Amino acid sequence: MTEAAAQHLLLHESEIVKNCIIFPPKINSFGVWENQASPSQIFTYSMPLLEIQILLVFSITYLIYTILKPLGITFFASQMMAGMIMGPAMLGEIDGFDDIVFNQELGLETIDNAAIFSFGIFLFLMGVKMDLKMAFRTKRRATLIGIISFLSPFVVGLIVFEAYKLPHESTGLNLLRITIESLTGFSVIAWLLSELKIINSEIGRLALSSASISTLTSIVLIYAFAISEYWTIVSPSFVVLHVGLMVLFVLFIFLVLRPLMLRIIKETPEGRPVKDVHIALVMILYLGCCVFTAYHNDSALYGAFIFGLAVPDGPPLGSALVEKFECFVNGVFLPLYVTTTTMRVKPNMMFEDSSTLTFCVVFSISTFLAKFISCFVATFWGMMSLKESLAFSLIMCSKGIVELSYFSSFRDNKILSDATFSMLTIGVLVNATIIPVLVKLLYDPVSRKVAASQKRSLMQLKPDSELRILACIHGPEHVLALIDVLDITCPTKESPNIVYALHLIELVGRDSPVFIDHNENQSMGSFENIIDFNRYEQNNQGLVRVNTFTAISPHKLMHEDIYSVALDKQTSFVFLPFHRKWSLDGSIEVENNVIRNLNCNVLDRPPCSVGILVDRMSKPLKSSSYSIGMLFLGGKDDREALTLAKRMARDPRVKLTVIRISSDRGYDNLLDWDTMLDAEILKYIKHNDVIHGHNITYIEQVSKHGPQTANIIRSLVGDYDLIIVGRRYGVDSLQTTGLSEWSEFPELGVMGDILSSTDLDCRAIVLVVQQHYADVYRH
Fold this sequence. Notes:
Elements: E1 2-5, E2 16-19, H1 46-68, H2 75-86, H3 97-102, H4 109-129, H5 132-137, H6 140-164, H7 171-182, H8 186-196, H9 202-233, H10 236-267, H11 276-295, H12 300-310, H13 317-342, H14 347-350, H15 354-381, H16 386-396, H17 401-412, H18 418-442, H19 445-452, E3 467-473, H20 479-487, E4 497-506, E5 514-517, H21 528-538, E6 544-553, H22 558-568, E7 573-577, E8 580-582, E9 588-591, H23 593-604, E10 609-614, E11 626-632, H24 636-649, E12 654-662, H25 673-691, E13 696-702, H26 706-716, E14 722-726, H27 749-755, E15 765-770
Parallel strand pairs: 3-4, 3-7, 4-6, 7-10, 11-12, 11-14, 12-13, 14-15
Antiparallel strand pairs: 1-2, 5-6, 8-9, 10-15
């Protein structure tokens, strides 16, 4: 029998806990055959018991999630529902289930220890991914909303508590409860926005900025109210000593440990991962911080979170820590924490005290409404639409694992009774179930904007109107070829080019996406490729205007940034780089599937006409003359590609050759509408070939099948610096018969796929064009 002081998560009382410990501890069994008369003895060993508990938790959780996912129920809500099912109200009532699985001498202790350990790492990673700088550079609007979203439910909660307050209740503990109910957890908001795939949307960025302010405010107040309880219960001298130690601890982390980690980053070569020994060192420091705060009468979780805030976010160190631990913690052990916490809910106790039930219902609803109304008024007054304001307010009112962890901690510390804990936990479950569904119904930024936008393509432009282009890049290797192509789009003073250069960077090691307008924030992120675009503008004064942006977001949501910029700036054409990178000798150097998936997403739901630029590491285009070949088979995409080629041909340096590949000299069926449109647009080319033959050349080729078309392409590729083709996705014709079966990249279409093939000795730049379609979901 051993005696130890109880280690609570927030407040520590003078309590003695008695534990019976069996020596040697029974960890691994010899299997079910160890005791054939009583096979259930296997559950007296901690490892088999933990394994069966994990199996039960995940089986029930995934069963619920599979059934309810079509209704929009999230995985977190499914975890809580699994806890309710496995708790005393349902499976716990079955004879033998609770006794064997969760009520032995080991009971929930084993799985609890694993869950608490994983929650500590979760808070550490939460601190790593939280960008502290964002809280200090948030705009006035986000700061105001963050403060209002915390203060309004806090004030209403104080009023409710005063109305229902009992004489013996502690004011400090009540303030703690109100603070927890009022906070907006940054990690909860980030998870919800990621789940709904709107983390890099306008309201997503605003919600994250506001939540960071609310989270930091609530952490300070929670600690302050806990200290006030110490002042009353223990002694002022203890509080002074305790606060002094914590201040020294924080200073040590940020003034000693953080510079040490920055040195690790400095010593790591650019583009190389952090050494495993450095990862191990950081985790040892993490455990040391947890031990220090736990030893000095604070929660070990505080030490984990504060140290996480000190770790430099993003690559290489922050992203390496997230990559190594997040999947395991969030995917395996954190669901155990959510489920085992919810298993403590006792619905039968909720109705034993009607006054407690009334208070919890009134308290939860009133604080929710206070936060919802204040956020709605703040955003709607700020010229946000009705649906966006409603969605944003619901997001700010969402609850999740942060609130659940505080409620569990308060129950363990006897700050909350089992009845109050059960009601508040069920409130979190209701919140986590309903809010994601409502937000999804109210807010879909891309679908709304695309549905509202008009068809925007080069063919829709007036002859002398400005050309708005969105140029997307991922790295320096995409810049030179793109600028070369932009340079021959023939901008004039009457018809200038407005270029929006968007540098796309994958978000790793942090939760907060970043969107930088370099025209407004010139000091932020001065990247070399952005400078190249500024130099391009200076070389074309009066003809070209360049606006540069940087978007740092998850790779699965990068296309949302492209949609937003293209639709907000009303661009007519988007340039996307191809995902392959060639070396100077023509061999493939690297393939980036993230870029390929991004291109496919944009092509499937285009904001305007799109062009994929395939740069096979050709030498830079000559500034004196450009030879352009345009392969024309017919159709909307080919007509859009020809329209771009015609604009380029206005430049006296350009020599354009249009190669019309048809199945016969009669151009198929002249009664076909597409064929008639093709014939109409080709009239201009034929006319200019006759009148101004030195600039535009028109050639006709006949092809009866796909292999013949491929041979025609092979015979032409060496004659041009730039080759333009239409994507012609899903269009079948006699000229391309049999080629689609061999197509490696459907996003390039049949012609583009041939031109980008490794079997073809082509060193020209290839541009594959897709016209903007009114039916954006055609694929």
